[in-house]
Specification:
- It is a single chain.
- The chain contains twelve helices and 16 strands.
- It is an alpha+beta fold.
- A six-stranded mixed beta sheet has the order 1-15-14-16-12-13, with helices on both faces. The chain has a five-stranded mixed beta sheet with strand order 8-7-11-9-10, with no helix packed on it.
- It comes from Lysobacter enzymogenes.
- One of its GO terms (biological process) is monoatomic ion transport.
């Protein structure tokens, strides 16, 4: 069995190699099955038909159960948090720096060893306690010095538990986990997605060493809103860039180009539309192909998808066929275009021959 390299296979598919079919020729799956490209087993051809599209129903994206099952517990104080402890009717304890100072000046920092100091209470281990548990301990200790103390504890700066962000966000500053649970939607909203460069379909949430791939576009499609996913300390959010997510539209289209896309629902019709559509003068409607998987044909057969687009109704099928990153959309030329190109290539050669003959004639004179 002869293995065809990726570049050679694409060249042959679009007719540059000349061993399969020339661009612009119509070739049916049955004809392709008898061709040399099909016989080596590394390339297969599939017609885009209503039956094929019906069998390729898209599976709706679902959120992993473990992500949906996570429910945040009461916030537990951590190292680096700054607390504001109020002892009602005792401003000398609540605001030793003076009531006119900013709240942060009277805050109590949880030290790197997890402890904090408070007058008449001394050193107390705050790390790992809930706000209510710490309030209870302070009340118990200070009651030896203050009669019926009314104690309140609040966190004015969260410095211990954070979520990190990376990728195609406008703002990638770490976001704190606070006493108010943080959801994925809130975190993404605060970070602001880059509307041009983000790949919404490739979003990755990493938690405790495990990666969860979430298609944000699919989850929020059709007017529905994805259910909230609560984040936990240490989560990492990555929004990939779409610069490597390209579809290449070449051949007889108005504007051949490599186009990026940020969702999973770019269809063949949309791709052709962005390229300006089929060239009305040079394209052949029978010759719309999508070439997929040539670079990985050593692992699985590459596929040529064929759309017969002789009538506008065919684009209804194209609107149901979803292209993927790396696909090559090729539109072949009509027969008259191939003939004109042949003539255009032949004429310069004939001119050279004629000039040479004329020169020889002048020399002989």
């Amino acid at each position: 069995m002869i293995k065809i390299s990726g570049v050679a296979a694409v060249a042959a598919i679009v007719g540059l190699g000349g061993c399969a079919f020339a661009p612009g020729q119509y070739i049916s799956p049955a004809q392709f099955a008898r061709s040399d490209l099909a016989k080596d087993g590394h390339i297969q051809m599939v017609a885009i038909t209503p039956d094929y599209l019906s069998a390729q129903q898209r599976v709706e994206t679902s959120i992993p159960i473990e992500l949906m099952a996570y429910q945040p517990e009461a916030y537990r104080i951590g190292r680096g948090d700054t607390l504001y402890i109020t002892i009602w009717d005792h401003p000398e304890l609540t605001s030793p720096a003076g009531t006119q100072q900013q709240t942060a000046a009277n805050g109590r920092l949880v030290r790197p060893d997890g402890t904090l100091f408070y007058p008449y209470v001394g050193m107390i281990r705050a790390e790992g306690l809930t706000i209510e548990e710490l309030r209870s301990q302070i009340t118990s200790r200070i009651s030896h010095y203050v009669q019926s103390p009314q104690v309140d504890v609040s966190i004015i700066d969260y410095g211990s538990q954070r979520v990190t962000l990376q990728g195609a966000f406008v703002k990638t500053e770490r976001q704190p986990i606070t006493a108010t649970p943080l959801t994925l939607a809130q975190a993404i909203g605060a970070a602001t997605v880059d509307p041009i460069r983000a790949d919404l379909a490739g979003f990755v949430l990493t938690r405790e060493g495990r990666q969860y791939h979430l298609d944000l576009d699919e989850l929020n499609r059709g007017g529905s809103v994805a259910k909230d996913i609560y984040l936990k300390a240490g989560d990492h959010l990555y929004m990939p860039y779409n610069d490597r997510k390209e579809v290449y539209v070449v051949g007889e289209v108005v504007r051949p180009q490599a186009m990026t896309f940020k969702t999973t629902d770019l269809t063949l019709t949309q791709a052709l539309g962005r390229a300006g559509g089929l060239n009305p003068l040079t394209a052949k409607g029978d010759s719309v192909y999508v070439i997929r998987g040539v670079e990985t044909q050593d692992k699985q057969p590459a596929t040529i998808f064929h759309l017969s687009a002789k009538s506008p109704a065919a684009f209804a099928l194209g609107s149901r066929f979803h292209v993927r990153a790396g696909d090559v959309v090729f539109v072949g030329p009509a027969g008259v275009t191939r003939w004109n190109r042949f003539v255009n290539q032949l004429l310069p050669l004939s001119n050279i021959v004629n000039n040479a003959a004329n020169t020889q004639d002048l020399l002989e004179r």
